[in-house]
Design brief:
membrane, mainly alpha, 4 helices, transmembrane helix, transmembrane, about 100 residues
């Protein structure tokens, strides 16, 4: 229960900081940290499943790859719209990983 509360609190705090940050440098730092957090959640989620749950493991790794896609999209972004899309992918990766880890 304590782990669940800590993971949820850090994820929600990171998402709020990412979406409400004013400076572009602050958004970039929050995006990278939240993406790393999303990848860590994916690793925890995928490795906590038994070997015969292949579909669930693929789903868990998929949330981690969303974080990788967010970082790549942010690096290659040419417009603010693409940067916002990368932020949304990072948030989706993190919160989707939490939901997958504890509820699905």
């Amino acid at each position: 229960m304590i782990l669940f509360v800590i993971l949820c609190a850090v994820s929600i705090l990171g998402a709020v900081l990412l979406l409400l940050a004013k400076s572009e440098r602050g958004k970039s730092i929050a995006l990278y940290l939240l993406s790393i957090w999303g990848m860590a959640i994916a690793v925890i989620s995928a490795t906590s499943l038994p070997r015969n749950e292949v579909g669930q493991q693929i789903l868990a790794w998929g949330f981690g790859f969303l974080a990788v896609a967010a970082v790549i999209l942010h690096i290659r972004a040419g417009s603010k719209g693409m940067r916002y899309a990368s932020c949304c992918l990072a948030v989706l990766s993190c919160l989707g990983g939490i939901l997958k880890l504890f509820f699905i």
